[in-house]
Amino acid sequence: MILSQARAQAAATLREAGIEGGARDADRILAAVLDIAPDRLRGADDVELTDDQIARLEACIAARAARQPVAQIVGFRDFHAHRFVVTRDTLDPRPETETLVEAALDLPWRSVLDMGTGTGVILISLLAARRGASGTGTDISPAALDVARRNAQLIGVTAAFHAADWYDGVTGRFDLIVANPPYIALDEMASLAPDVLDWEPHAALTDGADGLSAYRTIAAGAGAHLTAGGHVLVEIGPTQGAPVARIFHDQGAKTRLIRDLDGRDRVVLARFDA
Q1: Does 210 belong to an annotated binding site?
Q2: Do residues 232 and 218 touch, judged by C-beta distance below 8 A?
Q3: 232-249 b/e with 16+ CB inside 10 Å = b?
Q4: Is 117 annotated as a binding-site member?
Q5: Is 243 annotated as a binding residue?
Q6: Are 136 and 161 in contact (CB under 8 A)?
Q7: Known binder of ligand: residue 238?
Q8: Is 118 among the annotated ligand-binding positions?
Q9: Is 93 annotated as a binding residue?
Q10: Can you name the CATH fold of 89-271?
């Protein structure tokens, strides 16, 4: 099978399986099998695929047809300026989260705490962009922490990683606290796409309640863990801007909503002056 045939067949298989954006996903998978960038497929020579490449492609396309996320299938996600390892023990990093990273890089800070770090994309992206700063990542999942440590090593970032349930066991103060917490309400879980509901860790998606529990905990403990004039940046669901801002305001913070590239509320910025 030559490259053009493999590409067309993979895209057709995913379309037939009802995968939205199937051609794009097929290209990402095929590019990973060939170890090239997806944007190089169109201009690549129409070479003959090896038997091993065909077998890998077929297995990966079958996995995507079963709704497994592409990042889990290929084992990585490109985020901000780096490539991150992704497994079933972590959330698949979303492009919208780059809004939080960019907002953080506009702030003055030399130390950062990332709670619920997952793959480590937020913390590692920040430390890679601000060399000389220090950072700590925490997560309740030991498996997720293993992924974060691996990503830090691969990208060449030094960070501390600890198992913690939010602030439990966290000592010291930080100029910046960041988090992309589980913000999906329990009664909204059933409406998620199977790509998310069946494949990503539920503890990273929902608090099992109204979707606001983590924000209450983060806001309540921020004053005891921030340096004077420190900031908190949290990712939110697109309808959560007002209630999350109110939670931080009630703890004495000045707040501002930041929108993503699609114009949706995506991040709450909270400044604690005292």
Answers
A1: no
A2: yes
A3: bbbbbbeebbeebbebbe
A4: yes
A5: no
A6: yes
A7: no
A8: yes
A9: no
A10: Rossmann fold (3.40.50)
Q: Which of the four pLDDT bands, split at 50, 70 and 90, describes residue 1?
A: confident
Residues 6 or more apart in contact with residue 55 via CB below 8 angstroms: none
- Confidence class for position 188, pLDDT limits 50, 70, 90: very high
Is there a binding annotation on residue 120?
yes
142 is in an annotated binding site: no
**pLDDT tens digit string along 108-127?**
999 999 999 999 999 999 99
Instruction: Tell me whether residue 109 is annotated as binding.
Output: no
Closest by CA to 210, choosing from 233, 234, 180, 240, is: 240
Q: 233 by DSSP, 3-state: which?
A: strand
Q: Determine the average pLDDT of the residues in 30-41.
A: 87
Question: What are the structure tokens assigned to 185, written together?
Answer: 């309400």
Paired residues of 134 in beta bridges: 111
The answer to whether 166 is annotated as binding is: yes
Count of residues making up the chain: 274
Does 167 belong to an annotated binding site? no
